[in-house]
Amino acid sequence: MSTPLTWSKTKYTWSKKLTWNGQAPTNNNKMNSHVSLAYKKKKEGEIIPFAQGVHDGLGGHATLFTSLPVTMIALLAAITDYTTKYNAAQKGSVAQTEAKILAYSVLIGLLNQLAAYVEGVAQGNPDTIRAAGFEPVEHTHVPSVPPVKPELTSVENIAASKVQLHVTMQPNIHSILVEYRTGAGNWTSGGAFSSGRNIVIAGLTPGVVYDFRVAFVGGNDATSEWSDLVTHMCA
Fold first, then answer.
1. 3-state SS string over the chain?
2. Total tally of structural domains belonging to the chain
3. Parent domain of 95
4. Which of 85, 116, 127, 198 is deepest in the core (most CB within 10 A)?
5. Is position 8 within any domain?
């Protein structure tokens, strides 16, 4: 089992004997940046070139980002659909405005999934975050408030060999750690996620029953205890 991620109290570097998504720290692998979610606050027209940049960044670094939760075809289709409906709604009807809002929601949803994925791949490396077309943000030093025990509310099948976990969030949480196992076997790391609404675990075996659990990582060295187990059969 990977040691939960924590922070040094004096600077944003790796603390001793910690791992990030199963990897040990190195001098060049410091967890000092995260994927910025400020794209959610961009003006409607500004999200189009940003999303295109994410598409181009991920597509141009396919050897680095090998297990994308969203295909580039799906992302490009969402960008094109939103662009068309955004332009139509500039002097359009109420129905066209509603269509634009729906297309925007779909596009942001795909970007959220990709942001969580890049967060896990980058492991704090701002250059990797930029390569994916996202913007890195440095950690702010927040008071160390011990996170409460997470509530893993549900696990659902969303595709073959793929499940989505739903977690009730709380303030000052910057990562959610996921682990799963079968029977009484060893726990396997499912990665780290930045949102309780986009936790997707892929590569599972259909028909197999898994135990899932999550833990919060907050400011400084604050890491919660593991949640209660949720048992679920993968479809």
1. CCCCCCECCCCCCECCCCCECCECCECCECCCEEECCHHHHCCCCCHHHHHHHHHHHHHHCCCCCCCCCCCHHHHHHHHHHHHHHHHHHHHCCHHHHHHHHHHHHHHHHHHHHHHHHHHHHHCCCHHHHHHCCCCEEECCCCCCCCCCCCEEEEEEEEECCEEEEEEECCCCEEEEEEEEEECCCCCEEEEEECCCCCEEECCCCCCCEEEEEEEEEECCCCECCCCCCEEEECC
2. 2
3. 33-138
4. 116
5. no
